[in-house]
């Protein structure tokens, strides 16, 4: 039997019931998401790179739809439930009707994601959110979430659970995040205490001798690898004890202090397109751009090849406009 269970609209309620029966004992939840890329960036002046990263994430999460969520359950010792330990939730998505970045969709299709099946059998986000709220997965301090470089992941989760656009400020976002997810560990953030660990999730897993089950760039397999990597890292580098005051609730890529104006960092730093940066960070093959055209380290944003026409601008609530990237956008908008 496969340890990864595929979840579509027809078996959503049954599989959420299965999770509900397991969550008290297996209260560590490792997660990963797959989403259709990055199609916009904010413009204007930003006090810090953290604010810039957040606004970039916010405008893209608000514009786009999630494609997959992977959840893996484990207990305090890192043991998994027998048989199925991981659930891969597949959401409704249409390449004809929904917005996406073509290179991200190409990557997902090459990784084995069947987008026609997503259109035919995909889960409606409201159905998922309704069941998740009563599942024991959220709102409880004893439920501990594990992630890797997860700003966008939790952005999509907050959007799913609230059925609202993300808050206009980073502070309000973290208030909402702490309400739904009181305990979060981001492995990428925790790596600051592990000087020998570098790179993306696959790099770290390889260094720790953790084996992948299932295909990369699919949320179920990535969430299982995230769980196994966390427990091995906790054992080796943290003596099986995590200081929550130091590491809980911190997301890598948010909280830095570069000054950013019109999407360009004042410091000479490196970065890449947000969806590629996070996804490739997990696989260990992060793309880099020329230092002179880079963006603040962290989530990253697309480097812009040139200005777009005024008609390319769109509203962005109280925080000013955003600009669609010139690299090509698919779907309707």
UniProtKB/TrEMBL annotation:
Key words, A-Z: Cytoplasm, Exonuclease, Hydrolase, Metal-binding, Nuclease, Nucleus, Repressor, RNA-binding, RNA-mediated gene silencing, Transcription, Transcription regulation, Translation regulation
Family: Belongs to the CAF1 family.
Catalytic activity: Exonucleolytic cleavage of poly(A) to 5'-AMP
EC number(s) recorded for this UniProt protein: 3.1.13.4
SUPFAM superfamilies per UniProt: Ribonuclease H-like
Short name of any one Pfam family annotated for the protein: CAF1
The keyword Transcription regulation is annotated on this UniProt entry: yes
Any one Gene Ontology BP term: regulatory ncRNA-mediated gene silencing
Region described as Disordered: 274-300
Broad enzyme group: hydrolase
Calcium keyword on record: no
A GO MF label: poly(A)-specific ribonuclease activity
Name recorded for this polypeptide: poly(A)-specific ribonuclease
Taxonomic lineage of the native organism: Eukaryota, Fungi, Dikarya, Basidiomycota, Agaricomycotina
Main location: cytoplasm
GO cellular component labels: CCR4-NOT complex; cytoplasm; nucleus
Highest rank taxon of the organism: Eukaryota
Compartments reported by the entry: Cytoplasm; Nucleus
